[in-house]
Structures are given as structure tokens and as C-alpha cells.
Amino acid sequence: MSTLTINLVRLPLLSRFKTSFGTETQRCGLILRLRGDGIAAYSECVASSNPYYSYEDNDTALHIIRDHLGKVARGLPSPGEFLERASTVKGHNMAKAAVEMLLWDFHSKRKMKPLHRMLGESKGHADVGISLGIDRTGLMVKRVGEALKRGYKRIKVKIEKGKEYDIVRAVRASFPEIPLSADANACYSVRDVHLLRRLDRFNLLYLEQPLDHDDLIYHARLRKEISTPICLDESISSVDKALKAFEVGAADVVNIKPGRIGGLTNSLEVIRIVRKNKGHVWIGGMLETGIGRSFNIALASHRLVDYAGDTSPNEKYFERDIVKNPFVMDSGIIRPNTGPGIGSEIDERFLEKMTIRSWAA
Ligand code: OSB
Ligand code: MG
Predict the structure, then answer these.
(1) Is the whole model's pTM more than 0.70, yes or no?
(2) Of ligand 1's atoms, which has the minimum distance to the CA of residue 255?
(3) Coil, strand or helix: which one is 359?
């Protein structure tokens, strides 16, 4: 017997996070809990209140989990078996990933092994970069300076159409040598090549997702027309899209978010595909609470992940998180939890307090 519960939680963000598609002031997401065999497993669905990053949001994910995926999970299958049985549901990777990762936590806990060890060869740490939301140029430069002082290994600035040049130029002028990237969140079109070509002089590590969220072909074209390497985020929505991205030459780098591609099984597959094609790979973030963060940091510790990710410590996002053992960053690295599974100690009382609504699935 097992029971699955879903809590919709809302945590205020310490500072607003602006991207080319909108501004987030809170993290509003689904937390899953699976109890069975004396084990309590947890996961987080990376969907948010709006379908701006991808078509999924909390309502679609809740529907898919409650009405389609929940019953599969209750039989406690392995993550691989779950994906196999869930394949009749098309798309909805964030919903699938939430359940798939729940099962990773469950089975790691059953084996009494930390998740990062279950995932394969671990470096024992994640290299950490920061993702900075859009702000006034002067403030951006100041926040980059603060992040460097904290030890972050790579700085990523969000950009929007028409303001990309000023932001990147100002940051580069103050910090000529740092590993720097820019994330457009799909706000440009093929007709904007002239804008993106002007960024070539700033020696960016890569330009993240410049074109449409589902595109590969125009990215492949753009990649030949600018010298800055291309990193894909939104466009890599499955293992298949990762294979095709390298087949058509659309990417140099891939930002993996397990939530975007159906979970950790697919993430491990995409990591192998990217490295086999001589690409670089890192683990992104979706402003997760400590629960989602623990999965990202376990994955970012994988030996084949070669670039610093967007896995800041909890304190960047929240005054108080729903875990009692937040991650601590030291010299730009974070060590994954060592307890069984995700190793997060859930602050059940605070989780309840932050819950807007809950369901038994
Ligand atoms: O494009 O990587 C992105 C947050 C929400 C949606 C999309 C993205 C992001 C981030 C934040 O860049 C990364 C993080 O700190 O969690
Ligand atoms: Mg991105």
C-alpha cells in the first residue's frame, strides 16, 4: 500500500526574478509526497502558475498527475518502469518528471543510498553558477560583483530584446575575464541575427535559447552566423530533441532541467548524448524549493556534467525554505546531501503552513 499526496505551496522570493517572458515574485509549485513501506519520498514539479516557459503550468500538471500518473506511481515501479507505463500520456514532461523523481527518491531511500550515488559516477560536488534576472544596468553590474565575491563560478544574465547589448557590455566592461553567459528565454527571431551578432565581441561562454522555445532548425542556422556558442534550454524537451539538436548542429551546449525532459532517467541519457557529440552540459534551475534543488544538485554532481549550473544555494531564493538542511555553497561548489535519497529533511510544519491546497492523488 502506498499513498500519494500533492501540496500546492507558495513561497515568497527574496527578490523578484525578471526574464524576457515575465516577472516572478514567488515560487508557487506542487510538492509530491509518497508514503509506503515505511518510507516517505518527496519531489517537486517545476511547473509554475503560468505557461510562459513552456505549455505546462500547475493546473495542467495537477490534472495529469491526479487523473493519469498517480495510479501508476502507487504500485511503486522503478523510475524506468514508470516512464514506460506513462508513455501513453503524450508530453506533460514536468508532470511526468515530478512522479519519476519521486520514485528515484523512494527507491534510493529503500536502498539506503544517496541519490547522487544512485545516478552513477559522482564527482561528490556540483559546480555552481548564478542566474541573474533582468534589472537596471547599474544594478546588474553591482549584483554580478556581489555574486563573484560569494564565489560563483559562472555568471548568467537574463536579456531581453533591444536591451541585450547595453547589459552585456556594462557587465563585460567591469569584469573583462569572468565566465559570462546570457539567457534570452526565446525572445528573438531569425530576423534578429544582427542584434545577436553584436554580442559576439563580448566573448560569452554561450548564448542561451535565443530563438523559439521549440526550434532547432533556425538555431542551427544562427549557430553558423554568429561566433558565440549556442546553448539550448527550452528546445531540448526530450531525449529525441537532444539527438536531433546535434544531428542538425543546433547546439554547442545544453542546459538540462530534469523537469523539462521527464526526469532523471532521460537527463542521464541526454548528458551522455551531449558529451558523445563533444558538447558541454550543465544543470539548470526553475527557482525550486529545497526539494527540487536537491535533485538538481545530485544530478549536477554527475561526472559527465562539465559546466557550472544554475543551482544556487537555497538562501538566494528564500528567507526560509521547506527543508531543515539547506545547501551551503563554499568556493563555488555545493556538495549533494549524503542521507538516503535526496537527503533533505523536510520541515513538515512549515510545508503545511506554506500550503495553499492539497490533494490525495
Ligand atoms: O531559463 O533558465 C531559465 C528560471 C525560471 C524559468 C526559466 C529559467 C530560470 C532561471 C533560474 O534561469 C535558474 C534558477 O536560479 O533556478
Ligand atoms: Mg534558460
Answers:
(1) yes
(2) 2
(3) strand
